[in-house]
């Protein structure tokens, strides 16, 4: 069962044990793992990782580790493709609250799955959507 959607940085910070991940976010992810639940990750996060690698902001190891996680069918983090259901849910994400398209897609994934978003992003946190940070 999906209990949340993680944005790109949340996923990476958890996988690499980065102290930038908040204690509340880490505890939520750890609780999901202990309960046997899963955290969804939009496939837009993989696209964002390519961009961040090209800009030199993250290492290529980030993509390698993420893909390896997604290949395990029992993994805590599960890739969710951007499909028509997500596109339809996008209409329920207020563009004035979350104007950045990749963030809107992550948010729409959470809306579609009816779960909170785990994100440090200020606009997402200030939106009317349920967030964990």
Structure overview:
- The protein is of the alpha/beta class and 133 residues long.
- It has a single domain (2-128), classed as Rossmann fold.
- Helix content is 52%, strand content 14%.
- The chain contains 7 helices and 5 strands.
- It has helices at 8-15, 23-35, 44-54, 60-71, 84-90, 101-113, 122-126; strands at 2-6, 38-42, 77-80, 117-118, 131-132.
- Strand 4 (117-118), helix 7 and strand 5 form a beta-alpha-beta unit.
- The longest helix is centred in the N-terminal third of the chain and has 13 residues, at 23-35.
- The model has no long low-confidence stretch (mean pLDDT 96).
Count helical runs: 7
Whole-number tally of structural domains: 1
Described by strand count, sense and barrel closure, the largest sheet is: 5 strands, parallel
Indicate the overall shape.
globular
User: What is the name of the CATH superfamily?
Assistant: 5'-nuclease
Strand content: 5-15%
Mind telling me the C-alpha Rg? 14 Å
Termini Cα gap? 20 Å
* Overall mean confidence score, pLDDT: 96
Ordered list of secondary-structure elements with their pairings:
Layout lengths: L1 E5 L1 H8 L7 H13 L2 E5 L1 H11 L5 H12 L5 E4 L3 H7 L10 H13 L3 E2 L3 H5 L4 E2 L1
Parallel strand pairs: 1-2, 1-4, 2-3, 4-5
Short description:
With 133 residues, the protein is of the alpha/beta class. The protein contains 7 helices and 5 strands, in the order βααβααβααβαβ. It is 52% helix and 14% strand.
């Amino acid at each position: 069962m999906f209990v949340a959607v993680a944005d790109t940085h949340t996923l990476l910070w958890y996988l690499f044990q980065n102290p930038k991940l908040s204690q509340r976010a880490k505890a939520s992810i750890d609780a999901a793992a202990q309960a046997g639940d899963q955290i969804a990750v939009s496939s837009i996060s993989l696209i964002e990782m390519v961009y961040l690698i090209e800009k030199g902001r993250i290492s290529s190891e980030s993509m390698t580790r993420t893909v390896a996680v997604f290949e395990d069918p029992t993994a805590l983090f599960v890739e969710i493709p951007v499909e028509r259901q997500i596109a339809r849910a996008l209409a329920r994400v207020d563009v004035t609250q979350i104007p950045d398209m990749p963030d809107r897609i992550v948010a729409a994934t959470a809306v579609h799955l009816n779960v909170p978003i785990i994100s440090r992003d200020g606009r997402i946190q200030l939106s009317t959507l349920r967030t964990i940070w």
